[in-house]
Amino acid sequence: MEIREIAQKAKKVSFGLTSISTEIKNRTLLTAAKLIDEKRALIKMENEKDLKTAEEKGLSKAMIDRLLLNDKRIKGMIDVLYDVAKMEDPVGSVIKMWKRPNGLKIGKMRVPLGVVGIIYESRPNVTVEAASLCIKSSNAIILKGGKEAINSNRILVNILKEAADIEGFPPEAIQFVDSTDRSVVKEMVQLDEYIDVIIPRGGEGLIRFVAENSRIPVIKHYKGVCHVYVDKFADLEKAWDICFNAKVQRPGVCNAMETMLVHSEIADGFMPEMIRRFKKAGVELRGCERARSYDSKYIKPATEEDWYAEYLDLILAVRIVDSLEEAINHINTYGSHHSDAIVTENYTNGMRFLSDVDSAAVYINASTRFTDGNVFGLGAEMGISTDKIHVRGPMGLEDLTIPKYIIFGDGQVRE
Amino acid sequence: MEIREIAQKAKKVSFGLTSISTEIKNRTLLTAAKLIDEKRALIKMENEKDLKTAEEKGLSKAMIDRLLLNDKRIKGMIDVLYDVAKMEDPVGSVIKMWKRPNGLKIGKMRVPLGVVGIIYESRPNVTVEAASLCIKSSNAIILKGGKEAINSNRILVNILKEAADIEGFPPEAIQFVDSTDRSVVKEMVQLDEYIDVIIPRGGEGLIRFVAENSRIPVIKHYKGVCHVYVDKFADLEKAWDICFNAKVQRPGVCNAMETMLVHSEIADGFMPEMIRRFKKAGVELRGCERARSYDSKYIKPATEEDWYAEYLDLILAVRIVDSLEEAINHINTYGSHHSDAIVTENYTNGMRFLSDVDSAAVYINASTRFTDGNVFGLGAEMGISTDKIHVRGPMGLEDLTIPKYIIFGDGQVRE
């Protein structure tokens, strides 16, 4: 099937999804969970094909690991389906209603976005996460996964469609682009007549390609250059723990810290122990001149590029600053507007940081590693946005809807 | 000044706007109102230049009328400034806050979008409307008006900047593209590093050009193909009044009705009187075969193109349908997802229409002509969106903000 035809089908079925009952949507999710559990052997068999191809092609160990669907990950997908089924259905909720002098009653009612296109790489779990959120929010979804996961994605989509068919949710609302041809992406992002929003998930290259070619609104983040700022009034114990966790706990993800900013007046107390801990964990440090003065043999000199860098690795840029303003200015200039934290016991500094740091998630006294739909309590996430419209940060169930205006009159006309 | 330099300046100043007090913002608006009142003669003199050029170039009467700034329109701008000053400041309001099991308190706080680029044609009033909304919502704005209004726009921007300067609001937050060169638009919409959202207002050509070339998220509507559906259970008096108002009261605007749908079982009672009224008002009708049967001399045959047409004139397409479903299907297929109304006394049909018509504003028993930020009670409007993300319908003050996540911890790290 051509991508245009797929998109047309999705659009056509999307109009009827608003009136599908919450019960049917929940039953579809629960039946999908049951089928995934039952068909575990089949899923693993299909996944095995992808793993074999990946090995033959010499993909990296990290890539192969992301492809793998073992029992733990299958349980993870089942858990997501149960979680999403439990969440409140956002469709149809009226978030506000008011009366105008002419008697018109005007309300804002949440409705689905329509057709959501997701373009993603590698992890086949995304297939189930994204589809489950779209089913619950009454959106049609077009899934374009990576070619390396084509067999795993296909079997998961077939199971989801089977569940939909059993429970009376239109299976055509779950569309799968069964193609390993990359040119299909370029065509897909031009179909603004049929697709309402595009969510790219993967490497920066894929996301830039989508953003530059899309005529459809895109919800995205290019990268996560996250900061922790250790304020003059920081509690040292909290600062050490938070900085260590933000860098070391899982360095390969977008909410890990990439640059640490330290107030000059606390640096003498803070730096030696922090350096000791990072050294022990094998973290490479790249610092400004003043940061290097604490261990110039261990800390390499940072270049201008280091302030922009997303290492996704055990590497950290370090800068000593002289004020809260300098820290905020650094973050707003070099950061990626993803997740940034201040460690401080000073009320005013904390509130100022919250207000002025222009990022999707701003923390006081906690690790940046918490930016995640599930951890925030939004259920699964469709992606993370560092854009400024529609949604900032993790995109959850509610963000797959948008309020439209509903107006109740009794014959009003405009004068 | 180059557009890139303008955008850089706007971005730079935007980070500090979040912490400007509501009082300073309101005083800026009120002082601008006062200055516009005082400098009325100067404004008219500059406007006169634009009017003269327009006449020399032989612009249409309608175009010239849109350019004109007379006392009534100057009062309109002053009123907008007073209205926006009175509105509640959305910046900093926390719309939700919850606690996670690990003790993290997570909230969603409204913050400005950052830098708003508006590209508009003709009406110089838009300069004041757009700037006032951006001042109040702590956004920097880049104003790119049409070349036909360059002198009027320039003097208005200068007055706004003067008011900002007097009251301590950074004047650089109001940037004016003082150029009549159209190629600047193409360059402007590529500057995604500095501009957070683009709002094009004007003809469909301008909007398509912006949407196709922009790398920045665009909030827009191409056109308004609005419908009134006269249900089988309509109150005839209401139906006649609403249809007449929606078509005739101001046919040149995007919320006027372009297609009327009539249920076959009420058509005999409804059509003759409706035709009589439209005839009297000089409305040209184009109908399906069944509609034409009510007056085949007066009603011309409609072609497939008529169902898609935005006439912006005293022309109306008419179709007889056999069911509510057929009406909804017609609207979702041919419409522009702007504003659509049902006239009915039947509760279930009304609620079904509200839920299933995929438009920014859906009405029961009222004219589509009400879709307008001011009429809805949102104050002035930045534009109207028929897209599915960020905002549907009139874009008001609150839509110039977006919630970011704020997280209060006391040392939490991720396990």
The main sheet of chain A orders its strands as 10-9-11-8-7-12-13
- CATH architecture level-2 label of the largest domain in chain A: 3-Layer(aba) Sandwich
State the CATH topology of the largest domain in chain A: Aldehyde Dehydrogenase, Chain A, domain 1
The total of helices of chain A stands at: 16
Number of domains of chain A: 2
Principal-axis shape of chain A: globular
CATH class of the largest domain in chain A: Alpha Beta
Major beta-sheet overview of chain A: 7 strands, parallel
How many beta-strand runs of chain A? 16
Biggest interface goes to: A-B, 74 and 74 residues
Amount of beta strand of chain A: 15-25%
Task: Provide the helix percentage of chain A.
Answer: 40-55%
**Radius of gyration computed on alpha carbons of chain A:** 24 Å
Structural class of chain A: alpha/beta
The CATH superfamily name of the largest domain in chain A is Aldehyde Dehydrogenase, Chain A, domain 1
Q: Which residues of chain A form runs of ≥5 with pLDDT under 50?
A: none
